[in-house]
Design goal:
The complex is a heterodimer of chains A (274) and B (243).
Chain A lengths: L1 H28 L3 H9 L1 H34 L5 H13 L2 H12 L6 H6 L8 H25 L3 H9 L4 H29 L3 H6 L10 H8 L4 H44 L1
Chain B lengths: L1 H20 L5 E5 L6 H4 L4 E5 L1 H9 L6 E4 L3 H8 L7 E6 L1 E6 L19 E4 L4 H13 L2 H5 L2 E5 L2 H9 L5 E5 L10 E4 L9 E7 L6 H12 L1 H9 L9
Parallel strand pairs in B: 1-2, 1-3, 6-7, 6-8
Antiparallel strand pairs in B: 3-10, 4-10, 5-8, 5-9
The chains are: A mainly alpha (274), B alpha/beta (243).
């Protein structure tokens, strides 16, 4: 009986591995290396890559800039409504991206919630590159903030308090003690969020539309091309697979690097407290 | 032996969803512009409405459909040449119009106003029939470059164009005349010169690999019937001569 159970479990593992590995392998097997290079040289791909890199870079910078201090406050302070705020940061994780697109449209659309006021200022968001940036920031921010809150919570509060008693101002404690100690976790959260942002599709197509060189990101290019030029779609897919592997490897390596960092950083603090 | 039993159980578990989805009515792949009218002609089939080109691609990948109805002869004829669908029949015609949001923010009065800089125009992707018809009519009117520079989004089917204009995000869009009816409260059609209209013919065909050929043929007959034609006309489609 136990042998049967073990065999079944083994079989399940094999089935799961094949189910996940086969489609990824197919991305590379269905296209010859020559065609892959040709597809990566195509104008559609280059334009989409530039749009993706530009919009992701802007959105990611904004998420880091706003998300890091926000996460620090959430990790350090206990206040009324904190649970509510944390839940809010989880909402985009469970919302289908298309819902995010509709919600953004209902907020920033020309005749919607804020769109009228923005329009009066001569700003139109829908169907522009700004819309892509907003969509990417909206879907990736919870990945970063959640990870960043956890990273700051893992920092020994005694170290931060010690820095305070030694006369460091709160911004200095944040910048010189909390930030370096949480760097590893922040890096991991940042990487995951960046990957999620680069892959963003549903919110973008609803909110920003699709136009080569302007709003057509790599995932939108896959969708626009797959029935016209399957090779380009496959090539972009293969690129994402390589990128995904790189990210996962980086995340595996980051913890080791962090541990050494946090130990060295905690030594002086420990010696001063003794 | 035990291993074989476990394997068989697993195989059965994996196969279960496939067997439950079999049976029932036929599946019709139809151009997005047929979304309103086809369910009125026949309520029972399962419909997949999308760009004609996407549906053709899915059929080539072996998608299990029984009938294919496209907004242009191109894809049905290509699929027929390759033996994937039976001989297509023309069942409707259509016209292109420009739609603008009710409040017409860019004050579009004619197609020539679309040349003005700053107009936000949404059209179909070059691969989808509505997009290629749009390029044809712009070419005939001799205003291709001036108008295409105003395009802010290329949608993969006509529903995407209608939605973006109806919401007021875009100032104008090229769609079929039949697409305006359901959204007349939100958009205003702007007629295009009749002399420049490209011929727009819808074709329908039974998919060769269908396992429900009788039901599929019956559906095609229904679309081509007197009642089918009346419903198509009511929805604003033009009709080909009866053979």
């Amino acid at each position: 009986m136990t042998r049967l159970a073990a065999a079944a479990a083994g079989l399940a593992l094999v089935a799961a591995v094949v189910f996940l590995a086969l489609p990824v392998a197919a991305l590379f097997l269905r296209i010859s290396p020559g065609d892959l290079v040709d597809a990566l040289r195509s104008e559609v791909f280059r334009d989409a890559l530039l749009v993706s890199l530009k919009t992701s870079a802007i959105a990611h910078a904004a998420v880091l800039l706003v998300g890091t201090p926000a996460a620090y406050v959430l990790a350090r302070r206990r206040f009324r409504g904190r649970g509510l705020v944390l839940t809010l940061f989880e909402l985009p994780l469970v919302l289908p991206p298309a819902v995010a697109g509709v919600a953004l449209l209902a907020t920033f659309g020309r005749y919607q919630l804020l769109g009228g006021s923005l329009n009066a200022l001569g700003i139109q968001v829908g169907l522009t590159q700004t819309a892509v940036v907003l969509a990417v920031a909206f879907v990736e921010s919870p990945f970063y903030v959640r990870g960043a809150v956890a990273a700051f919570e893992a920092v020994d509060a005694n170290l931060l308090d010690a820095a305070r008693t030694l006369g460091a101002s709160p911004p200095r404690v944040f910048a010189r003690v909390a930030l370096p100690l949480a760097a590893g976790g922040l890096g991991a959260a940042s990487t995951l969020a960046l990957a999620r942002g680069l892959g963003e599709f549903g919110a973008t197509i609803v909110f920003a539309g699709s136009l080569q060189r302007v709003t057509q990101t790599l995932p939108l290019a896959i969708y626009a091309e797959f029935e016209q030029d399957f090779d380009v779609a496959l090539a972009i897919g293969a690129l994402f697979a390589v990128f995904g592997v790189a990210i996962l490897l980086a995340l595996k390596l980051v913890p080791a690097w962090t541990r050494s960092l946090s130990i060295s950083a905690s030594r002086p603090a420990a010696s001063t407290s003794s | 032996m035990r291993r074989a039993v476990a394997a068989a159980a697993l195989a059965a578990a994996l196969a279960a969803p496939a067997s439950t989805s079999a049976g029932g009515g036929i599946t019709v792949f139809a151009a997005a512009s047929l979304t309103g009218v086809f369910p009125k002609i026949a309520a029972l089939p399962r419909y997949s409405f999308a760009g004609s080109d996407q549906l053709a691609f899915q059929l080539r990948q072996g998608a299990p459909a029984d009938v294919y109805a496209a907004a242009s002869p191109k894809y049905p004829e290509l699929l027929c040449r390759d033996g994937l669908v039976r001989k297509p029949a023309v069942f409707a015609t259509n016209r292109l119009v420009v739609i603008v949001p009710r409040r017409n923010p860019a004050r579009i009065g004619s197609v020539y106003d679309l040349r003005r800089s700053g107009v936000k125009l949404v059209i179909g992707d070059a691969g989808v029939p509505v997009g290629s018809y749009t390029r044809q009519i712009l070419d005939t009117l001799g205003i291709t470059n001036d108008v295409l520079k105003n395009v802010v989004s290329q949608e993969t089917d006509v529903k995407g164009i209608v939605a973006k204009v109806a919401l007021g995000e875009a100032d104008a869009g090229f769609v079929y005349a039949t697409d305006t009816k359901p959204v007349l409260r939100k958009v205003k059609p702007v007629a295009l010169p009749a002399w420049a209209q490209p011929p727009i013919r819808y074709e329908i065909a039974v998919v060769s690999s269908t396992k429900r050929a009788t039901a599929a043929r019956a559906f095609v007959t229904k679309v081509l019937s007197r009642r089918g034609r009346a419903l198509l006309a009511q929805a604003g489609f033009g009709l080909p001569k009866r053979k």
